[in-house]
Structure formats: C-alpha cells, structure tokens
Write a structure and sequence with these properties.
Chain lengths: ~300, ~190
C-alpha cells in the first residue's frame, strides 16, 4: 500500500513537470523551442499539437519540418520506439488528470471496461477512423482534443471561465473527465479508447519492444507469486488475468509504461529495462531454465 | 481453434465498429460546424465575404450548456493575409457588437487588449484571429440578433485596410419585417 502511494506521488511529480512544460501559462518547452526556431507563434498547446501533426503526416498537407509540432512529434515517435510511451506514462497531464481525480472515488462506483472489452481493437479502430476522417468527413483533431480542454481548465476553467465551448468540446469534457475518467476503473478510459497520440505510440512501442536494446516492461515468471497486485493497480488495464490458465496477460498495445505495476510488485517480478521482455517464450536471464537431476526446471 | 477464431472475429468486429463510430464523430462534428462562424481576409481589400452565424445551428450540448457564448474565427493557422506588396501595420477594431469582445490570435505579437499587431504584417504573411463574445438572453429571442463589423485599420494613419461584416441571427425565431434585408443577404448599413 505504501509503495503504491509513493509511486502515485512520484508519478504526480512527473505529470506536474509535464504541465509546466507543455501547458499555458507556463508551456516552457514550446517557448524555448519557438525561441530557438525564431518563430513568433504563441507558445501554447496548439503549437505542440501532436494530433494534427500525425494527421498531416498521413494527408501530406501542412507538413513543415521546422515547427514545434513536427519536431516534437518526431521526438515522441523516437521516444516511443526506444522507451515505450514515455510521454503518456510520465508527462501527459491530460491523461493523468482523470486518473488522479478518479482516485478520489471508490472503485465500486466505477466501470471496469477492460474486464469485458478488449481495448486494443477499439484503440486502433479509433486511430484508423481518426486517420481516415480528413478524407471522409474533415479532421476531428481539434474537435475531440482533451489537451486543449486541459489548457482551458488551467487558464480560467477552474474559476468557471471556459471560454467559448463547442458541442464537440463539451462532449470531450464529458467523455474524458466523467464517463471514461472518474467513472472508469483506472481513470484512463479516454487514453485507452480515444487518444490517437497514445495509440500511435503503442504501435511504435510494440515494434520497438521486439529489439533487445530498447526499454520495455519485463516479466520474470519464476518470481511471480500470482498476487494480482499489478493487475489491480494498472490504470490502463494492460495487465489482466487469463481466465483459464490463471497467468498474467500483458497487452503491450494498451500499456503506457507508467511503471505503476513495477512499483507495487512485492517480489520484483516486473521491471523496466532493456533485453528480453519475458512475457511469452523469451524468459529473462533470471529465469533461465536450469538442468537438474530431474530434468530441466 | 474454434475459440481463437471467435476471438479474432470479435476483435475485427470491434475494430470496424470503432472505426465507423469515429467516422461518425467526424460527421457529427460536420453537423455542428455552423455553431462557429469562420472567415478569411485578404488585406488590403474592402471586398471580403460577410460572416453569417445562425444560433439555430448549435448542437444540443452547446444549446444546453453555453448558448450565448459564440466565437467568430479565422482559420486555425492563418486567415488574415497581407496580399499586398508592402508590410501593413495593423489594428483590429470591432464595431456594432453587443457586450465585450475578446480577441485571440496564434501570434505572440498580437496584443489582445488593444487589438494591435506588434510589428507590420509582411507581404504574403498570415495570422489567425478569433473573436469571442457573449450574446445576452434577450437578444437571442429575435431573428436578427445583431450586425457588426470587424475592421482592420492602420493604427498610425487610421486608414481602413479591410472590413468583414458580421451578421448573427437565430433562424428558429420568425423573421420580422425589419429583418428581411438580413434574410436576403443584403445586410445592414453602418
């Protein structure tokens, strides 16, 4: 319990850093990068916009390399390849807010979507629809943006001044903070189902994690005592217990590498690092089979 | 094997369903586009297209939570472009709008209080502008709510560089005799 709290507070420190780096009135990251690029644009969350940049890369429109958004998106992709969705797990204050608000409510009042629904096809189904939307209906990048809504909250929303809200912005707030936020177990339903930035990072991470030199969540099966503490504490529901085999099932496509599971594991069966992941047929060095008199153990 | 097949079918169905739902969200967004009026301006020119905002086109969530607050904005990244050859010193002035109008821009050189651009807008350069305003309840209960102007002036000489007429209506309310000009698109004189 204590380890859990320490980890939650530690992560909160990181998310606060993310808030200071990317959201106005601070947005120090954008301000420094704009200064380096000698650009007069405003240093706010729109200057950083990963959502539009990802869509622009598909449509081929408005792709300019030397902008805060493009540079940052390329850095985001590189980080996801080498270290997993580091931005989601450590710096995304928009993802963290509903998770932390949700901690104020008891779990019995929340919906555990991940138990009944596999989030991965939904996550990637949304991503595919998101990327197709500019060709079919017009972009939905700005319409359902929780990053933008968080900036509204910081710049007056907390005092009741949200600025002008459109219907889609109101729906975003409802889905992000309420239905898939505080009413969802883990508080990260919006991250799981409706975030294209997270989905792209997960896709890249699933490829990057195949290489030994990249960082990923590793599992030492021989250390695991099946206590399920990691499953209970995973805000994304990326860890589930398989009904028949009783073994832990890890869904890399829905993991944000927040490392909450690593922090709460009482026996150190989960770790974050380089090398083999240990989830399937490739065990970690600690659990290499040993030859005994009775055969291979 | 049968279970694996079933699981694959469920996965594919979920993927397609979410894909369709997301595209549906795109259509919904298209359907409520009318709740935000947009404009493009070429400067210097007096011949810019008027903006018409109809409050009846508001989506249900907007109508429920914030029917009086409206936004009139240019494109996200650009919208006001200097099509001339000389740099233009610029100030944005609004006329005929009820209540306070708040100006926003994507450039840090725009002073949101005075509406003035810190340095002249170079030839072929653009910036975005957004006007937020609150329409009182009383005004919303009539067809023609108000007509106003967004003026772009040279702050030094006071010369008018461009103007965008703005008409805000509520088509759910029957047209009165004096509103026929607006309905016909001919607008009001200032």
């Amino acid at each position: 319990m204590k380890k859990n709290r320490v980890s939650v507070l530690y992560r909160a420190g990181w998310y606060t850093l993310g808030l200071l780096l990317f959201f106005t009135p601070f947005a120090y990251y954008q301000k420094v990068l704009l200064w380096l690029l000698n650009s007069p644009s405003m240093g706010n969350i729109h200057a950083l916009c990963f959502r539009m940049t990802i869509q622009n890369m598909i449509t081929g429109k408005n792709v300019h390399i030397f902008t805060v958004a493009t540079i940052s998106t390329l850095l985001l992709f590189l980080a996801a390849f080498l270290a997993g969705p580091f931005f989601c797990g450590r710096l995304c204050a928009a993802g963290a807010l509903p998770e932390y608000l949700g901690r104020l409510l008891p779990d019995k009042w929340k919906i555990d979507w991940h138990r009944g629904v596999n989030p991965v096809p939904i996550r990637y189904g949304f991503l595919a629809g998101y990327l197709l939307s500019p060709f079919l209906t017009g972009s939905i990048a700005c319409a359902f943006c929780n990053f933008s809504f968080l900036e509204r909250l910081i710049n007056g929303g907390l005092w009741g001044d949200f600025g002008v809200l459109g219907s889609t912005t109101i729906l975003t707030a409802l889905l992000w903070l309420i239905i898939f936020g505080v009413m969802t177990k883990g508080g990260r339903g919006y991250c799981s189902f409706l975030c294209p930035v997270g989905a792209v990072q997960s896709l890249i991470h699933s490829i990057g994690a195949r290489f030994d030199f990249t960082y990923k969540l590793r599992y030492a099966k021989d250390k695991c005592v099946d206590c399920s503490v990691c499953i209970k504490n995973c805000p994304m529901g990326a860890l589930q217990k398989e009904m028949e085999t009783e073994r832990i099932d890890y869904q890399i496509h829905n993991c944000i590498t927040c490392r909450q599971c690593e922090a709460v594991c009482p026996v150190g069966a989960l770790s974050y690092g380089r090398g083999k992941n240990g989830w399937s047929s490739n065990p970690l060095p600690e659990s290499i089979p040993v030859l005994t008199e009775e055969g291979i153990q | 094997m049968k279970k694996l097949k079933r699981s694959t079918v469920v996965t594919v169905c979920l993927f397609i369903a979410m894909n369709a739902l997301t595209i549906g969200l795109g259509y919904y967004r298209e359907s409520v586009m009318g709740e935000r009026a947009s404009f493009m301006v070429s400067l210097p020119s007096q011949d810019n297209k008027p903006v018409m905002l109809d409050l009846a086109e508001q989506g249900f969530p907007k109508h429920l939570f914030q029917p009086g607050k409206v936004s009139i904005s240019s494109d996200h990244r650009e919208g006001i472009t200097n099509k001339g050859e000389k740099p233009l010193p610029l100030q944005v002035v609004t006329k005929g709008f009820p209540g306070k109008v708040t100006l926003h821009s994507n450039t840090s050189e725009f002073d949101e209080k005075t509406g003035q651009l810190g340095r002249p807008l170079e030839s072929n350069q653009s910036f975005s502008l957004s006007l937020d305003l609150e329409i009182p309840d009383k005004l919303r209960q009539q067809y023609h709510i108000f007509s106003g102007l967004i003026q772009f002036i040279d702050p030094k000489s006071g010369n008018l560089l461009g103007v965008v007429p703005v008409h805000v209506v509520n088509s759910q309310i029957p047209v009165s005799a004096g509103d026929s000009d607006i309905k016909n698109g001919s607008g009001y004189d200032f």
